[in-house]
Amino acid sequence: MVSIHFNLAKAISQKTPFYYGWIILGAAGSTQIARNAAAALMLAIFMYPMAQDLGWNRSTIAAAASIGGIASSFVSPLVGWLIDKYGTRAVLTSSIIILGASTFLSGWVTTPIAFYLTYGVARTIFNSPIHIGASVVVSRWFISKRGRANGLLSFCHSIGMTGLPLLGAFMIGIYGWQISWQILGIIVWTIALAPVFLLIAETPESIGLLPDGLDQVSAEKTKLTEYEQYNTEETWNLKSALKTPTIWQLSFGLGLLFIVHSGINIHMASYYRDVGLTSSQSAFAVSLAAIFTGIGGLAWGWGIEKIHPRFCYALLALFMTIASILFIFVNDIYGAWALASFFGISLGGILVVPSVITANYYGRESLGTIRGFIEPFASFGQAIGALVSGIIFDITGDYTNAFYVLAISATLALIITVTATQPKRSRRH
To answer: Is residue 215 part of a domain?
Structure first.
């Protein structure tokens, strides 16, 4: 079966008039669309009908997402090791199978424990193997074009983040929440299973290609800069990477930014209701944030190819600092929508910049293991941020102090990341 797969990938690569890496990107992008079956926005869509029908309170339902988030923090290191050991194709294929099955089974739950098992597993898959696996395989196929490739991957996620919850809401209105979960599970398999299983190859070298679509002879003659970047790229293993201060700076910086991410994102709609927006106006603001997350991913992907990675990372932190402060001064609908769009652009950077800088600094060979070490910082940041904003609101009655805390978190991330210089190489290929 493996040989058939590689023969298929190689055959397609020889017949397409463009670089096969873009097909890899498309296959990986399908997983980013599909994983939104377990997105927080999807859970929000199902929360009301499930609470009404099953008699559960909303915090009971929301706890499923928290369980999945915590679980992913512990699973990510294992996922990173599995990617480097068995390949992204195996990890992504099995993840899509599990995600589809767990989503499907969510339509059969009658107890909170059962829902924690089904949706909790789906949420773990959302946060960890699909997120890490897709970005790793894309980063292995691209070097000089790594930024724009990861930007397009982020855009695929934004498509799913916007489209699948809308589809879920539509189906609930027609079929009810049980059948809608089941249909979503089938949709997950339909969107991503075949592309991942049939089309993904681990590296361009595995099917006789070079990163970025370079031809060795022509690269040496006409694209020397890109070829030299490929030919001299050095790699680190996790043990050697952990001895560098940079990986710790990138990890803590990512965690601090995800504190801001969840501290604002999860509470945005409620905050906008507090300042006078209607339910539909607040919902539209959330949709704008999702749309501009995709646009922002494209912009940050282009930017990190033009700006030094650590300065691009610091600029991202600056954007999130500014956004946190500006939320304090929102007092009308147009300002709310404009700020939601700006915040969405910042969120797009979180999905792109950390992945690219990690690959640029530490190489492709052990990228899965290294990403598996870094990602739990993001998961814990998400958990802390949502909790901090909620606690501050419960104590003070508004979100003002929460936004100040989040601005401080983003500023600390700026200081940490701007000093995260590329480490000295451990060994050469």
So the answer is: no
62-82 pLDDT per residue, tens: 788 888 888 998 999 999 999
316 neighbors 416 (Cβ within 8 angstroms): no
Tell me: pLDDT of 39 over 90: no
What's the CA gap between 122 and 127, in Å, rounded? 9
Residue 368 and residue 62: Cα distance in Å, rounded?
A: 30
**Is residue 117 exposed (0-12), middle (13-18) or buried (19+ Cβ within 10 Å)?**
middle
237-239-245-246 Cα dihedral, nearest 10 degrees: 20
Are 293 and 181 found together in one domain? no
For residue 2, the model assigns a pLDDT of: 54
**CATH of residue 315:** 1.20.1250.20
Q: Are 248 and 171 members of one domain? A: no
Could you tell me if 260 and 192 lie in one domain? no
State which residues form the domain around 7: 2-203
On whether residue 224 sits in a domain, the answer given is no
Q: Give the pair of three-digit tokens for residue 386.
A: 């949502």
If phi > 0 it is left, if psi is from -120 to 50 it is alpha, else beta; for residue 203 that is beta
**E strands, 256-405, in order:** none
